[in-house]
Write a structure and sequence with these properties.
By secondary structure, this protein is an all-alpha fold. Helices cover 76% and strands 3% of the residues. It starts with a helix and ends in a 12-residue tail after the last helix.
Length: 293
């Protein structure tokens, strides 16, 4: 039973790191722009299909496809910001408008994926030798360990960007007080485009990792990952990137350890119950702060 518990904890940490990337991208967009990106999961699935296309037609290794997807979708997100967000931000209720707009984008992207790739699930035919690592009775797929390493490196790179670079510090300043940033002469509009591009790029890169870890993906999976992202940021705190990571680890470990002792349905119930409890006990999340409106 101890080995099963350890197995559940390790799987929870691995999935929590992946969930953390989902929450980080979603939280950066919300923190900087106050845009509720309901299409986040669709961009994640598009990233998975992007890696599949590169592997299937160009023979590009998914591990190499990951940085390619990050760069490509950063550009896509940057351009998409100027196409969608500035006009929407002038509405009387930007957050509600963003929710409705991005919900429409979500449906459009899902329908486009279904039209292009049809309803069949796809799998990345990629393996790393050895396929498994065993530690006594604990068995972990090598690809999950690789995914954990990539996730940790991405989080470390993002933390360095946010806390050590001028652009990253400016983004954090926008999260804290956008009006003050405008007063000191920083181009908040361009930085907002960077934030949106960064969030979309993280979603696409996470999609590549998800395609490596999970057995299959399809056009219908976007809403599931968007929902996970919202659970994560509710636990960690809206607008707080590091809080999203902590919330994801908490959610992943709860879900996977519960799956050891109960069936998957009860594990899912416990995971969402954790979110509901957080809303009642601390509505702002673990690291979030109450906002005065």
């Amino acid at each position: 039973m101890t080995s099963l518990l350890i197995q559940g904890l390790l799987n929870g940490l691995i999935l929590g790191a992946i969930y953390g990337l989902i929450g980080l991208g979603l939280n950066i967009i919300y923190g900087v722009l106050r845009v509720v990106n309901f299409a986040h999961g669709e961009f994640l699935v598009i990233g998975a299909y992007f890696a599949w296309v590169l592997l299937q037609y160009l023979g590009i290794n998914p591990l190499l496809a990951l940085p390619i997807s990050f760069v490509v979708f950063f550009g896509v997100g940057y351009l998409l910001y100027f196409l969608l967000v500035p006009r929407m931000s002038k509405s009387d209720d930007p957050e509600t408008s963003s929710l409705l707009l991005m919900f429409g984008v979500s449906i459009a992207l899902s329908a486009t994926l279904l039209l292009v790739f049809e309803a069949d699930s796809r799998t990345l035919e990629f393996a790393i030798e050895p396929v498994f690592f065993s530690f006594g009775q604990i068995i972990l797929p090598t690809i999950r360990l690789v995914a954990l390493l990539i996730s940790v490196l991405l989080v470390a790179a993002l933390a360095y960007f946010l806390y050590r670079t001028q652009v990253g510090k400016a983004l954090r300043a926008i999260i804290m007080n956008k009006d003050a940033v405008n007063i000191v002469g920083i181009n908040a509009e361009r930085l907002s485009g960077v934030a949106f591009g960064l969030g979309i790029a993280l979603a696409a890169a996470t999609g590549v990792i998800v395609a490596l870890v999970f057995p299959s993906f399809s056009p219908f999976m976007g809403n599931d990952y968007t929902l996970i992202g919202f659970v994560v940021i509710v636990l960690g705190g809206l607008g707080h990137p590091i809080g999203a990571l902590i919330g994801a680890l908490l959610y992943g470990v709860t879900e996977q350890v519960a799956a050891v002792y109960f069936n998957p349905s009860i594990a899912t119930i416990l995971g969402f119950s954790l979110m509901i409890a957080m809303i009642f006990i601390r509505p702002s999340g673990l690291l979030g702060q109450r906002q005065l409106r």
